[in-house]
Amino acid sequence: MSAHCVPLLDAWRRNISAQIKRSQSLKLCPQHVALLREPGVVASLAEQNAKMAGTLLRTDGTAAFRRFTPDSLAAIEAAKALECVDCEEEMCQDQSQKNKKKKKRKNKKEQKDRPKPSSDLEAGKVVPFIFGDPPPELLNVPLEDLDPFYRAKKTFVVISKGNVIHRFNAEPALDWLWLRPFSPVRQAAIQVVLHSLFRLFIVLTILANCVFLVMPYSADALGFTCIAVYTLEALIKVLSRGLCLGRFTFLRDPWNWLDVFVILMGYLRMFINLPGFTMFAVLKVIPLLPGQKRVVGAMAHSLRRLRDAAVITLFSLVIFASVLLQVFMGDLRTKCIVIDDSNGTFDDLGFWHDDDPYGPRYINNHSNQYILPSQLDALVCGNRSDAGGCPAGFICLRTERNPNYGYTSYDNFFWAFLSVVRLMAQDFASDLITLSLRAGGTYNIYLFVLMSLGCFCLVSLLLAAVSMAYAEMNNAAIQDAKEKEEEYTLILEEMKRQQEQQNETSAVATSDDQDMSTVNVLADTEITVEDVQHPLDRCTSLWRKCAGTVLVWNCCSSWVILKKILHTVMTNPITDLLMVIVVITNIVFMSMERYELTYEMEYTLQLADKVFVAVYTMEMALKITAVDPYHYFQVSWNILDAAVVFLAMLESSLADVQGLSFLRLFRTIRIFKLAKFWPSFHSLLSVMHPANVLRCGSSVLLVIFFFFFTVMGTRLFGQSYEFCVCKIAGDCELPRWHMADLYHSFLTVFYIVGGRWVEVLWDCMEVSSPALCVPFYMAVTFLGTLLTLHLFLTLLLRSFSGDHLALMAKGNGSRRNLRVAIGRITHGISWAAGHVQQLLGQGQQPGPAEGKDVALDQLDTAESGPEPADGQPDELKDKSLTEDTAATVHVAMATDEASAEADGGESIIIQELKPENGHSDKNGVESSPQHTAMDEEVPMPPECCTENCIRHCPCLALDITQGRGKTWWTLRRACHAIVEHRYFNIFMIIVIVLSSIALTFEDIFLEHRPVLKMVVEHADQVFTAVFLTEMVLKWMAYGFNVYFNDIWCCLDFFILNVSVLSFVANGLGSPRRSSLPFRAVIPLRLLSRSQRMQVVLRVLKGAIPSLINALLACLTLWLVFSIVGVNLFAGKFYHCFNKTSDKYFTEEDVHNKTECFLLMEWLNERPTEVVWKTTHFNFDNVMNGYVSLFHVSSQKSGMDVIYSAVDSRLIEEQPIYEDNLYASLYFVLFSIFGVFFTLIFFIGEIIENFNQQKSRSGEQNIFLTDSQRGVYSAMKKLGLQSSQKAVPRPQGLCCRYMYDLVTSRWFDIGMMVVVLLSILTTMLETADTPDSFLEVLYFGQLVLIFVFLIEFILKMSGLGKSYFSTGSNILDFIALIVNIISLFLADLIHFYLFPIAPVYLLRLARTGRVLPLIPGTEGIRTLFFALKMARPALSNIALLFGLTMFVFSIFGMSEFPFFLSEEGDTGIDELFNFQTFFSSFKCLFICTLSGGWESFVYNLVRSPLYLDKKHPGFDVWGSWVNPLEGAAFIYCYVLVVSLLVIYMFIAFILETFDFDEVSSADAAREDDEHDHHD
Predict the structure, then answer these.
(1) What is the DSSP letter of 1094?
(2) Which end of the chain is more exposed for a tag (fewer CB within 10 A), N or C?
(3) Where does residue 3 rank: exposed (0-12), middle (13-18), buried (19+ CB within 10 A)?
(4) pTM above 0.85, yes or no
(5) What is the distance between the alpha carbons of residues 97 and 480, in angstroms, rounded to a whole number?
(6) Orientation of helix 8-17 relative to helix 1237-1257, angle to 10°
(7) Can you tell me the distance from the alpha carbon of 197 to that of 205, in angstroms, rounded to the nearest whole number?
(8) In the predicted model, what is the mean pLDDT of residues 983-987?
């Protein structure tokens, strides 16, 4: 990590600000290429430091492309001999040096300065433009190497079609055949390998092999034919390149190793069954596809970047797993067992007899355990007071099996490590935490909070490493393009200067000038000459003649006049506005479709659809008439309009044909018409444009990835699922996610890449081998995540690049027309209102409207740009119909208020309320000189009232120099001095904190604690009085004008009103708890006192317009999927349900709704209750579709939606298991387009707004306060230089020896080994460890503690009191003391003092000293410094995050205290509920995790609505939970928290990882250390 790094935000800025021409299009005409061969031109370019022309071109004036002959080989031999002589002389000089350390450093510098191969002439790249195009006769023949680096090496190049460079060794290909470069056999092999037909043949063979792989196992014989073709391919490559002796031989290419592996596995399959290894043949297509090798290289580069971050991540996960192992070892085995003493297993008190041999078999019997309905495992419990309990008649005992087939466990280090990986990946992390807290006690939640924060930092490190790797490559590509463009211009100027020096004719010079301008235009690949030419000039003469006759309609003068009239009408801004209104109205009508429409409503919607189709058809016909068909179809938006009309007519004509109802889905295309007028929606659609996605090489790799692992999963685990399905399903029916067939295997791989791999991994390990399942699933997760992240970053930067924004900015007529139309309508309304007022005698004569029209005309002219050139057709003069009018992407800037706050000082209140010097009252009377002394000590308070108030109430103007005015002024100054005093703010912060703490005691148990209730009530009265006094003091000090113009004072005023009103309501007899939801906002008063939270709020406030715009665009895209979902699944999620047995009726019992109602009538007098109901999340209307899609996007409770869709049949028919299997493709497409691409667009908008706010504020770090910025700058200047002073060497002989010992590197390495051994002893302990082995581990810990004690004694002897001057030594000392105490008093600490988890954390704290000693990971220090730099910004956001959780916890405690989920449901239970503040905080913490909130929403929407009921067990009356209110509460919390988490990632990744100065400081420090040791 010490290399130069580019932060992602810098790459973002450069990508947007720089519009780089594509360097691949730079070309020189043959005359310029010939002139470039002259030695004088080459020498001049070399003097000007031309990168390519000055170093790559020959200086002897010969041609660049020359055949490779024996003379060429002899010249290489001579150059190589001369180079060897120089190397021998240099080695002799190096051996004469005495200082070996200086020699090593010199060698390192010389290696950097040695010549390297040119990156522009690498194999696989196109010949640079300075060489021109090679003659056709020199293609596919050996040529002398173009790179000067290889002039003394036995290599030659071959240029294939497309000017692609291929480099070969000049050594014999095979020693035993003596195939020299001039051998006809080898040349023939080279031509075959480089021929395009040969590559096409290999690609077709690979595709055929892929077809054979998806076929049944009987088709394996066909695969041997493909293996024979691969063998022939490898043989031809070996003949052309050689086997292994040489840099460019067959085995030196890693992709050829893949060929060898595929061939070997293919032949081994003849003797050994290797079902999965044959899939590697699919990967052979990667190097054959253009650009894929570069993408793979980019991913490999990102993996190298991940090295240091991966080391920190792995080390941290090991520490976390060790702590969880020691805290929860064996706890998840405790289950609720029914108490049954029929076999003598339990005594009279219900305790189990330890010596009863029948006991273990009874306890481990699944039928004797308490199992909740719809659950597979028994209820986990604990024997602590804060752990989960058992119902009456059950006892909590330890069994032999853990939950989830025994794979969710902390019994050994492997399963503990897998659990930590789950926590980091947020894959069912909420379930893991719930089980752990139920078994080990809810007090351990702090452990998971700390680990969640640690995992957040680790994920940020990994994301930052990948982001920086991609940013570096993107920056290098941009820099390379800039250099090539600059050199291109330099070459043209040099050639022009050389021609002028040769006194050539002026005609030639003029011709050269024209050539130079022409090639400059060719360099621009985005804006070409075609953009300004007539469209017919692009076509051939025959097509131009045909188009001019058929597609351009200028038959007569009357028709031309009609065209002009229609052109004027259709290009009028009012027309665009009307079409926008029509589209929006059409969308509203489409959104009104739902299940069980009335006949009148259905008829209205059909009639409205016909009207809209008629309007669209009329619009298309008028536009075609106005601009002719040829010009009409030149615009992409017009093509979309024509497609809408065509599909609407097709649907109307085939409406009565059965089976073609899917044509209704194409109505949603009309929504995309909004993109023409809505820039944000257009930007969102451009992100998912197929051309944009296919240009990303990682998208092709993702397709190969899915195919590879889909087929491999089927071949590896297909038979295992079929034969062992009874292990995972009681009815021996395949689960939803399996790999028994290709389609389910694809869905499973897609599910794993989406982040849900734990559940399917459990099933796989149960039916197959864990040794086979774990590597497969880890490979799918890691490679899928890496590919997805690479595609995410590529699309993120490409979709918001400068070239893309410039392309979108080419046409903005539609958006401009809307503004002009709205302006004209507004002006017309104002004009009409003025005339009406004049007629009524209530206004003056309105002024002439010409001024406004002129202003609008100027707006039109300014926004439309220059007028088209004369001579063009009239149809082309207005661009709104004949060119792409995509609006530019616009991200709302921060408001002026936010900008003013960002530019201000530390305290916003003080800045706004600070009075100016030379204060005077409203009457112009200056302050009395008697107050001079007070003026120096206390600032002058501002005016109390505004000028308007004083003008209407003259009594408010007082003379402050005498009488009551003087007394009033003195009182105000005293109040101002009080509120501005530092201790007053501290006192108010303490009061706010105490009042917030008092709110936490107002739970449902407060009614049973009269003393605490009285204290809380009196404290609330005191706090309200204090806040009221503060408000009065601020009114007196600042006045009403300043007080109510400050947003934070207004917030305090609102919160105080809430407190006063609740106090009054309590006095009038209202229950105290009824006002608790309103008093939950009291902690928000901290916002007005904390600058750190104000900074974050300022950033969020500036992002609100952009976020709302982006959110509306995303919701519009989701509307498309919601309408499609309504058309596909409306009314199909209903089912007949037996509420008595809590089971569904099968299709054999109930077929449809009618039979279900007949069953209801038949069972009317029986105790069985049957209902016909739908699922909670369905697509019966558009709003329900939105909610269902929101849950599907989180992929947990959304699984129920997918399962209902897959089981659905026709409307009002009973569902059947996976009867509509391919309905899951709808949700796959939604996950791709509605989630993945939408997330790219949303993150891009946030980053763009973030960049704009930084530009407006002018600050480098907008998440920091002024004081934090000073500390941040100081830390950045210091870099990685340690502030620790060197410990002086002691004087005594013994002390000096100890000093030298403890400061040596070998001592650190030895202690590193000891630390690793201490970790190992912790990892080896398991839940089933025998007592003998436990004694060995205990003795080992004693030895290690003794070693650490010796280390402490040695360091104290050598360092003295300086030992405690370092933080790491202090931590080691604390860890040593804790180790000694915990080893002997572990049980006492665990049961009587405090939780044992902090003890294990401190015991393992010393392991952090191992990381700096690991060789090859110097960048770890840089990453830790980055974490340190990120701490201020993250802490500011974390403060707001914590305040948000606190407020929502109070609100949840006040609104949902009496709600418990139904039996068998996960989510809210006796441990996780909203009865107390701590339990409410636990619920919100679970909601914070990915997918954890869904179980709470699922239970809240199922709750019944009971009003005015007395809660059981409590003397409290009130309303029970409202499902809509509960769901809205969870949704709001999730949205706020998600936004804060996104900004935490941005603050960490984009703000902090700027290593330029840090790396230079690191290098300087290392050089200083080397010099010091030398």
Answers:
(1) H
(2) C
(3) exposed
(4) no
(5) 40
(6) 90
(7) 12
(8) 88
